Amino acid sequence: MRIVFFGAPGSGKGTQAAILKDTFGIPHISTGDLLRGHVARGTELGQKAKAVMEAGQLVSDDLVLGMLEDRLAEEDAKPGFILDGYPRNLAQADALGALLARIEQPLDVVIKLNVPNEAILERCAKRFAEQGRKDDDPEVVRGRLAVYAEQTAPVAEFYARAGKLVDVDGVGALADVTARILAAVRSAA
Ligand code: AMP
User: Fold this and answer.
1) Distance 105 CA to ligand 1 centre (A)
2) What is the pTM of this model?
3) Are 68 and 38 contacting, i.e. CB atoms less than 8 angstroms apart?
4) Which domains can be identified in the chain, with CATH numbers?
């Protein structure tokens, strides 16, 4: 099963992917987590990405694609994966399509978690207080939402036209959202 979790920052993609990876027995691959790992380890990629991430902008397509390609080549991703945070623009959606075609692993479904901006601002403010992620600062979150609206939202249209997009209401109790996603994935499989 090859799934993309799609949605604005703070829409719950990471939280839900972390829950559902065990249900499906496939890894949760978050490009944000991978990048934060590089920053924490101080790798060359991490050094290039750090300031861009803290400003809430997108890291360059080439850097992220190379990192993702390496991750998808790992053994645990052979049976499938939940991708979280990628693709974030149309160029990345094209690159992912080409990559998955090359390794003969086409996507099964793109789950789009819908959460209104006011709720997202609240959630990120809470995460900022708890985890101190610089890009969860309310000012930066506003910028990330603008990046999402301009660059990432068109990707939903791309997958809708391909017949792969399923909309899921991301508001409500965690378990309710999980159940909606499960139903959506099963109906698409
Ligand atoms: P996330 O944890 O998915 O919200 O990602 C945190 C930050 O990492 C983003 O605001 C970007 O700066 C960077 N990032 C994560 N995924 C991507 C991607 N697919 N393309 C470019 N930058 C990304």
Assistant:
1) 23
2) 0.96
3) no
4) 2-30+78-188 (3.40.50.300)
